[in-house]
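Please complete every field before forwarding. Incomplete forms are returned to the sender.

SECTION A: IDENTIFIERS
Entry label: holo-398
Bound molecule: pyridoxal-5'-phosphate
Molecule representation: SMILES string

SECTION B: INPUTS
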Amino acid sequence: MSASVISSAMEQNLSQGSLIRRMFEAGIELRKKYGDDAVCDFSLGNPDLAPPAEAARAMTALAARMSEPGILGYMPNAGFSWAREKLAAWLSSQQKTALEAKHVMLGCGAAGVMNAFFHTVLEPGDEVLTVAPFFGEYRFYVGNHGGTLHPVPCRAEDFGPDVEALAAAVTPRTRAVIINSPNNPSGAVYSEEDIKSLATMLEEASKRIGRIIYLVADEPYRFLAYDGIEVPAALPLYKYSVVISSFAKNYGMAGERVGYIAVNPAMEHADQLMDGLIFSNRVLGFVNPPVVGQYLMADCLGTSTDAALAIYTNRRNKLAAILADAGYEFTLPKGTFYFFPKAPGGDDKAIVERLTNNLVLAVPSSGFGFPGYFRLSFAVEDAVIERSAEGFRKALKG
Ligand SMILES: Cc1ncc(COP(=O)(O)O)c(C=O)c1O
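SECTION C: PREDICTED COMPLEX
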C-alpha cells in the first residue's frame, strides 16, 4: 500500500503544475529581489479595473439590509429567482434567443458552472473536443467528471477552429466540443460562418454516432472585442448549445465568483438538463452562487463596458507598438486582453526564460497545448507596459 497522503492522480497533477501559477510565483520572488517597480508581470489574466459604480451602490444598499434575518442565507440552488429573471432578459438580447429564468442557472464562476455541466452530461470514458490553444483548466473540468479532453489544433492562418480536423476527431465517445471566443490565449474571435459550419458538422456527427454532441460556448471575454467586431451568438446556430460565462472579466469581479450557464430552449428536454445542472451545482459543493455577487451582478447588468474596452484598446495598441518595435512576430488580438506572439525559433520556454531574466513575465504556450508561442496579459497598468520595452528588446537580442 502506498504511504502517500494524496492519490497518484493528484501527485501527477501537482508534478505538472500550472505554468501560469509558476510564473505568478516567479513574479513574487522577482519583486522581492528587485522591487515592485522593476518587474513587468504579464502572466495573469486578473482584470485590474475597478467594478462599475453600480457595484458600489448595490453594496451600500445591501449593507443597509444586514439586520434582515436570512439576508445572507441559502437560496434555491440555481440562484435567486429575481437574479435569474434579470440575467435571462439580458442574455436574451445578447444571444438573440428568447430565454426565461428557467433556462439559466447561476453558479460559482464560469469554472464552477462548467464543472456542473460536465458532471451532468458525461459518462465515464467520454471525450470532449476543444480547439488548441486552449485554457488549460479545461483538462481538469472534463477530467474531474470521468471524461478526457482532446485538443484539436486551430487553423494555422488565424487561430480559428479547424472544422475538418474537429470532424475527424469525433468518435462514438464524443460528448461535447468547447469553443472559447474571444479566445484565451490567442485573442481570436470566431466568425459566424465558422460557428455555423461547426454546427452543421456536429448535427451530422451526432446523427452518425447516435448521441447528442453539445456545443459549449465559453464566453467570459465576450465584451472585449476590438475594432467593432461582433462576437456571434452561439445559441441560435446550434440546437444542443449552451453558453457559459461569468462577471469575472467584464465587471472586474473575478474573485466574487458569479458565473452562469444558459441552456438553448430549442433542445428537447432542456428542463431535464437544467434539473441535472442544478443538482450538480448542489452536490459538487457549490450549493448556490454567492449572495453578495448576485446583488452586484443584478445592478451592474446592462451597464456599459465601453470605458473598459477603451482602456484595453489603448493598452493593446501600446503593447503592439512595443512588441513590433522589438521585432516580435504576432497577430493583433481581435478580443481578450492577451497577446500571443511567436517564440523565436519556436522555443516558448527559452523566450520566457530570457524575458524573465529581463524582469518581464510571460507564460509559455505549452501551458495552452500549443507550443511555439508565449502569452502576455495586458490586464496591467499602463506604466507596466510602458516600462517593458527595454526588457522585450533585450530578451529578443539575447
Ligand atoms: C477561457 C476561460 N474560461 C473560463 C475561465 C474561468 O472564469 P471564472 O473566473 O469565471 O471561473 C477563465 C478565466 O481565466 C478563462 O480564461
